[in-house]
Amino acid sequence: MAPSTSSAITLNINGEKYTLPVDHRTTLLDALREQLDLTGTKKGCDQGQCGACTVLVDGRRAVSCLQLAVAAEGREITTIEGVADGERLHPVQQAFLDLDGYQCGYCTPGQICSAIAVIEEHAAGWPSAVTDDVRSEAGPPPLTPEEIRERMSGNLCRCGAYVSIVQAVARAAGAQVPEEQDSVAQASGTGSDAEEVAA
After folding, report:
1. Which helix (H) or strand (E) covers residue 77, if one does?
2. Nearest-angstrom CA–CA distance, 137 and 139
């Protein structure tokens, strides 16, 4: 008798448990979107290259199009639907809104999930490819625009909202935003006006 190619699994998503039958080849992305109707996580390239499907698995970034749903059983999964605290936006969400860190918005859920992890990784002292001093005793490097760009490089934005995305990540992390970038945002009509438009 051939072994079964499907089984029932329980996923812990945004603090709630969901039991669902899945084919063993089903990706976490497809389980989220097609079976649980959690459509905030977007399907972009479906090859792990664009970052649109980024979620947090045990607090770490994961591209859900490359993660099998069965392999996520027993893990803590956070999607874009679970990052806010009720009606109160997560600081990264608020920064994206305030600084217009999106245009069409398709990549934004993945950008936000990735940014949340980036801030935590940086605070924990993890170096990036552009970190000058990678010794543990050096502590976290300054969260410069170059550091943010490198750390967020797995998330692509087809609209090209990168300047505002970098600013939003810096603001949410409490990092200093260089004046020249701040002036770019003001010249492009972002900032407090974005919140009024979104209201």
Report:
1. strand 76-78
2. 5
Distances in whole angstroms, Cα of residue 150 to Cα of each of 2, 45, 94, 116, 154: 47, 20, 22, 15, 8
Which class for 70: exposed (0-12), middle (13-18), buried (19 or more C-beta within 10 A)?
middle
Query: Given a cut of 50, is residue 194 above it in pLDDT?
Result: no
How would residue 187 be classed by pLDDT, with cut points 50, 70 and 90?
Answer: very low
Q: Please give the Cα distance from 21 to 170 (Å, whole number).
A: 41
Q: How far is the C-alpha of 138 from the C-alpha of 133, rounded, in Å?
A: 7
For residue 73, what are its two tokens? 């059983």
DSSP state of 62: E
Of 39, 29, 189, 152, give the one whose Cα is nearest residue 106.
39
Question: CA 50, CA 41: separation in Å to the nearest integer?
Answer: 12
